[in-house]
Structure formats: structure tokens, C-alpha cells
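Anyone able to model this chain together with zinc ion?
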Amino acid sequence: MTEKTPATRPLETADWTPAPCDLCGGQVTIRLGERAYTVRGRTRDFEMNFEDAACAACGFVFAARRPDSGFLMAYYRDAHIGHRGGELHFDGEKRLAAVAERTPKGGRVIEIGANDGAFCAKLTEMGFDAFGLDPVEADEAESVGKGFIGEGRSGIAEPRSADTVVAYYVLEHVIDANAWLAELIDLLKDGGTLILEVPNYETHPGDSLNPEHLLHFTPRSLRELLVRHGLEPEDGLEATVRYGQAIAAKLVDRAKAARPAEPSDVYFDDAAAALERAQAAYKVAKAERTRRTLVAHAAAELAAEADPSGKASVFAWGANEYAERVAPLLTERFETVRVIDRSASKIGTPFPGLDTSIAGTDVIAEADRRIFLLCSPNWNRQIADEIAASGWEALAVIDAVTGEILSAQ
Ligand SMILES: [Zn+2]
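re: yes, here you go
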């Protein structure tokens, strides 16, 4: 099925208003750079206008201008292809274990940013009383069936009812970190556990500076934010994705959750060095994003060499930003380009720059000449093994993250 793009598309714009530092309230920022671009959504285009800045007082990196929430909701509903929960089939076990270890048997777990509810469904199978909240997906009947309760909480998500609240890769997207965290804490019982994962700006600044992200946490700033809100972080919870950081923390002081404390002296003591690290990391991120664009061009070139006729069906596997870079380059050279993904919440949704929707692996068998471009930094090896084991013959299997040929005929 082909969905043709209309000749003219509406353009959504936002009021981008200045925001203070989420960590210390500082108003003075040091400009790191700007990212202005237009995102192609399903029915409309969205004008993005980021100014990346570091707080002069504490070194936290954030979007110095924030869009209004109406614009963001419209954007996520129309343009977001989702990376939250999208790789549950690979990394879900580690997340489930982390929740199970910290939650009483049969306890209530609430997931914020629950996408299509796959993670909650697993927790329910394990005997937990699990529910998901997702403002973006709340109106989808299928999601509701898996335990969604929508933006306005129903009785299920009553205050102080959850043993554990989890949010994977949500906090970096929110307009107001303090207000968001206060709402999550409100759901927790005293002594309940909050588990968060966000990108790690210190180790993977290029991933943290993904389009869409407004907040860029280091382990230092993430910990400080939680402590200010009356949470006591544990040490050593491992992230489940390559570029991320995870933290689990117990609610020990509800009064602080209502009135967050000032950042600690220890936090400010390290501010000058943190600011220097933030600026250095921003340069690394810019170089990394340039490198990724060059790799996408190299990968598209390898595909063209594998079939100069342009007749092969090309499958970009992994509906993410790597596929977004390489897919438009492939459509210039090949008649049939499909973006493949395993996530039920992505399949069937349009993909930026393509006139076909994201497909599941079932379409692969229909092709007779195939080229694969693997777009998942975490799982390309596993996907390559799966292709080798499947019996799908391929002219070439190309790693679109590294720009290398993995196998060729
Ligand atoms: Zn600050």
C-alpha cells in the first residue's frame, strides 16, 4: 500500500520560550549551538528551533528555549516514530529483572511513557499489578486494552498507590523536569522505588543531542535532581541500552518532593569542571553527528555497488534515526525501499522521507533480490545472525551504523 504525500503540507510552529536551568534554577546560560530544522510528520511538518545551552552556574545542558506542550503533543502524535519500548524484544529482560528485584510480590507498577503497553503486559504476566500511562498513545484502543489509563489519571493511578514507578527514555523529552518528577513521585508510596533511564550526555553526547531531546543528563545531574526531590539513589543499576544511564531511587522524604531542596554544595563545587566537560562533550557530539551522516552516505554507496541496476528491494532494518539518514539516500537509487521494524507500535506508521509505512519482517520474503541495511547500533550483530539463519538470500548485508559490509554475495 502506498500513501502519496499531498502537494502542500501544513507547517506547525511553536512559541519557543526561554527556560531556566532545571537543576539549579539558573537563568544565565552559555550558548553551545543551535539546531533549527523541519521534521516531516505523517500529516504535517513541524518547525524545530532548539538552542542548546549550558547553565553558567552548574553546567547542566538543556534546551534554553522550550516549545509549548500543545505543540509537543501534536508533534509526538504526528511525527514521533518512537524509540521508547521499541526494542523490548531485546532489552526487556534486564528491565523486568530490575523491577522484580525492587517490587514486592504482586505490587503495583506504573510505567510512564508506556508506548504500546508491551512492557506492562509482561509485568502483568509476572504477577504484578502493572499499568501504563502515555499521553501520546492514550487514545489508542489497543493500548487501553493493555492497561492504559490515559493522561488524566483514573482511580487506578491514585496518588501514593505505586510500589514502583518506571520511565524509560522519557525525562529527556519533557518541558519541565521538576514538575514531571513531582507528578511521578505523587504516584509512589512512601519508600517506593523510582526507576529511570535517560541518555548519558557524558559518555554519549551525540545520542543525547538527538532531535527531540530537551534535557541532557550526566550521572551527576540525574542523581542531583532525584536527591533534591527527596529520593535516595542506589548505586550501580546498569542501563539497558548502549548510550543510556539507569538509576533506581527510593522515596525517603515526601516533603522534599513537594518543595525540592536547593542543589547541594557538592554539586556546585564541581560546577566549573562540569561546565568545561559539557562544552567539550558538545563538540564531540557535533563531530559524531557529522560522522554518522558520512557513514550513511557510505552505506548507501555500498548498496548501490551491490546492485547498480537499482532493481533489488532494499530493507533498512530498525525504524530509527539511522534509517532516517540512510533511507532518503536509498530512494534515490532503488525503486523499492522499505523500513523494517519488529515493534508493533511502529509497524504501519509512516516513515519520514518514504512514501510507504514501516513494515514488519513479513514483507522480506516477498522480494526476490534483497539488500539489507542494518540500522540498530545495539543489535546489528543479532539481526545479521537472524538474516543468515532465515534463508533470505541477500546481495549484501550492510551495517548502516558503521558503514561496513557484513556479508555479500
Ligand atoms: Zn544550573
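Residues 236 and 247 are 8 Å apart (CA to CA).
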